[in-house]
Amino acid sequence: MNEKTQVSIESYIDSPEKLKTLYRRVLMVVSLSQIFGGAGLAAGITVGALLAQQMLGTDAYAGVPSALFTLGSAGAAFIVGKLSQRYGRRIGLSTGFIVGGLGAMGVVLAALLNSVIVLFVSLLIYGAGTATNLQARYAGTDLANNKQRATAISTTMLMTTFGAVLGPNLVELMGKVAQSIGIPALAGPFILSAVAFIVAGLVLFIMLRPDPLEIAKAIAAHKLKVDQENKAQSPHASGNKRGLAVGATVMVLTQIVMVAIMTMTPVHMKHHGHGLAEVGIVIGFHVGSMYLPSLVTGILVDKVGRTAMSIAAGITLLLAGLVAAFAPSDSMLLLIVALSLLGLGWNFGLISGTAQIVDATEPATRAKTQGKMDVFVALAGASGGMLSGMVVANSSYAALSLAGGLLSLVLIPVVIWSRRAV
Predict the structure, then answer these.
(1) Phi then psi for 325, rounded to 5 degrees?
(2) How far apart are CA 117 and CA 123, in angstroms?
(3) What tens digit of pLDDT does each residue of 137-164 get?
(4) 131 closest CA partner among 200, 179, 185
(5) CA dist 143 to 46, 155, 262, 313, 379, Å?
(6) pLDDT greater than 70 at residue 26
(7) Which of 7, 59, 94, 245 is the most buried (most CB within 10 A)?
(8) CA distances from 413 to 212, 304, 357 (A)
(9) How far apart are CA 186 and CA 246, in angstroms?
(10) Mean pLDDT (the chain, rounded)
(11) Who's near 305: CB < 8 A, 6+ residues apart?
(12) Between residues 235 and 265, which one has the greater pLDDT?
């Protein structure tokens, strides 16, 4: 760190008002990147299973795309976390988004070549964008105090809504654009993903200065030095490991349930006569419910508590599974309700779980630890995506939905145990 940078960081330590201004600016920049990141993520989610079904000719492996880009996101989460810890959020996040954009380009190439191998490799790389889109939520918390953290997470996630809702509803249009230039229709949304992820990366690379994680680490080091000089004990959380375990469990279970049901819904709808535009509407409501309630959720997590909102996540996901399982296959309305509840339950779980992870980490190792936690989340999603196709092929969409809803109830004893253990 050069002398000029050191002076710049010290100016934030000495001026709470300047630090508050930087905090707001970081939220604005991350939120802007999330608009593009959400579009890149949602467009691929909507048609990934349909593209695999078309190229492989079977439903049994329709969950493979979701599993692959979620598996790719597991590796990317670890790498982005390490890069962020070493070089700052700006380098880590911008790299992840741009690599994800290159993966989306690879999916388009795979469709052109009709190559399953190129498709699978590209989906793994595309996962970097998925991982980065999720990890960007941590950047907003670096300069937040413990009463602002969930609200900071939710602010950046809320902005994802604009791109996330727009992406699925551009599926049909992007399919027509792709066909007009000789590309298969189902690859069209990945053209949007490529552009959106790369723009998100450039926004962060150009605008996220000074780096919030570097400032947070400097402030933590300064406080530690002051505590040592005053012979005060540093407030290191004795429950860190427990907080990490509970936060990770909440995020992992909600991810498994959400990915499993979401992945097979487009395939289920297609089998029962619904068109691509109708699939886009249902997934649009789902993704909107994943992100749009975020600001209210963040406030509730900060005010009502992490435990109460984790329990709410389990109950909401159970309702989603029940509605999806028993809804008539030709009912667009009930499918929209089911997928909206699924998104809302995921939102409750992700924000409450993330807040617990941030509470349990120190700036010196925060990004690396967060990256590791997101690896587990991504692997959970990969498992949910992979198993979902097999369950539906050997049983039914209703059985999958019911099993997912019941699994979500595991959240309740976990968070109750965490309270009793304090």
Answers:
(1) -70, -40
(2) 10
(3) 888 889 888 788 888 888 888 887 777 7
(4) 200
(5) 34, 14, 34, 27, 29
(6) yes
(7) 94
(8) 36, 18, 19
(9) 39
(10) 85
(11) none
(12) 265
Please name each of the domains of the chain with its CATH number. Answer: 12-420 (1.20.1250.20)
Mean pLDDT, rounded, for 222-249: 70
pLDDT at res. 97 = 97
pTM (2 decimals)? 0.78
310-328 pLDDT, tens digit each: 999 999 999 999 999 998 8
CA-to-CA distance for 137 and 261, rounded, in angstroms?
24
Return d(Cα 163, Cα 176) in angstroms, integer. Answer: 20
Is residue 248 within 8 Å of 373, Cβ to Cβ?
yes
Q: What is the DSSP string of 282-307?
A: HHHHHHHHHHTTHHHHHHHHHHT-HH
Cα distances from 335 to residues 261, 275, 331, 406, 409, in angstroms, run 11, 14, 6, 18, 21
C-alpha span between 395 and 74 (Å, rounded): 28
pLDDT: which is higher, 144 or 233: 144
Return the closest-CA partner of residue 166 out of 322, 323, 46, 304. 46
